[in-house]
Amino acid sequence: MSVEAVEPRYALGGTISFDDARRHRLMGGKCAGCGAKVFPKPKICSSCWSTEQEDVALATRGKLYSFSVVHAARKGWPSPYAIAYVDLEDGVRICAPLEGDVANPPPLDTPVELIVGTLRTDADGVTVLSHRFKPVTEAR
Ligand SMILES: [Zn+2]
């Protein structure tokens, strides 16, 4: 009997890639006009209005800027969960779920790092993955 492997799905297709060491990288856009980096990659730069946007691998670490605990979760999501703003080391501010104990959240400015984890299970029973951040537990 063979078991068919089911590939995970990503919540935001095309936003997660891998570097040479097979670590997850979050892909954003870098404006060819002014150099601004944004996640996700926009069709037009909100700073200079250039439509020339390049793919760029974003920093994998940053600091917790802010967060909120959500108790009324969407269908299929765990509840409660924390949604955070993280300031990445390359200057991009990104919104993402925050891993950890929502009853004992980390203080603001805590160093955090990118991980990819389960967002939810879809109606077909397939795991849907997304980017998220967790407090840094080890030095680089
Ligand atoms: Zn620009």
Task: Give a structural overview.
The protein is mostly beta strands. The chain has a single domain, classed as OB fold (Dihydrolipoamide Acetyltransferase, E2P) (Beta Barrel). It has strands at 9-10, 16-18, 24-31, 37-38, 53-57, 61-70, 81-88, 93-98, 111-121, 127-135. The protein has a six-stranded mixed beta sheet with strand order 1-10-9-6-7-8, with no helix packed on it. Strands 2, 3, 4 and 5 form a four-stranded antiparallel beta sheet that branches. A hairpin with a 5-residue loop joins strand 9 and strand 10 (127-135). It binds zinc ion. Zinc ion binds next to loops.
Summarize the biggest pleated sheet: 6 strands, mixed
Strand order of the largest sheet: 1-10-9-6-7-8
- Cα-atom radius of gyration: 16 Å
Report the count of strand segments: 10
Can you give keywords for this protein?
single chain; 140 residues; mainly beta; OB fold (Dihydrolipoamide Acetyltransferase, E2P); 6-stranded mixed β-sheet; 4-stranded antiparallel β-sheet; binds zinc ion
Brief summary:
The chain has 140 residues and is mainly β. The chain has strands spanning 9-10, 16-18, 24-31, 37-38, 53-57, 61-70, 81-88, 93-98, 111-121, 127-135.
